[in-house]
Amino acid sequence: MKLEEMKAHYTEFDGWIESLKGLTDSEWNMPLGEGKWSVAAVVSHLLFWDQYSLKERFPYFKEGAELDSYPDFQIVNERAREYAENTATKEEILDGLLAVRAEFHKMLDKLDDEKLAVAFKISDHHMTTGTYIIDFIEHDLYHQKQVNAVLGRTLVK
Q: What pTM was estimated for this model as a whole?
C-alpha cells in the first residue's frame, strides 16, 4: 500500500467516524451479536489502540529499534469497553478518535517512502513503519465492516 493510499484511508475513515455521530442511542449501544461488544465499545477500542500507537509506538519507530511487546490486549480492550459503557459519551469517544486521527494525518504528512521502510522489531515480530500502519488500517476496516453489518447499512463517508 502506497503512502497516498494510507492517507486516503484515514481521510475516508474520518468521514465514517463523523457519520457515527448520527446514530441513535439504541444504535450506538447495539451489540454486534449475542454476547458481543456494542458499537460504542468497538469505537472506543479503536480510540484506545490509536492513542497507544500515537504515544507508545510511532515516536519509537527507528531503524533497528527493538520495542517491547504489546500490552495485554484483554486489559486494554476491557478498559476501552468500560470507558464506552460507563464513562464517556458518544461525542467524547468520537471527538477523541477524530482528534487522534488528526495527529495521524500530521504524522503521515511527514512520511515518505524511505520513512515507511524503516524496519524494527516489536517483541519478535519484524515490521516496518508501513506494515504497522497497514495492520491498523486493516483493523479499522474489520471493525467498520462489523459495525456496518450490525446496523444493516453502510454509513455514508
A: 0.91
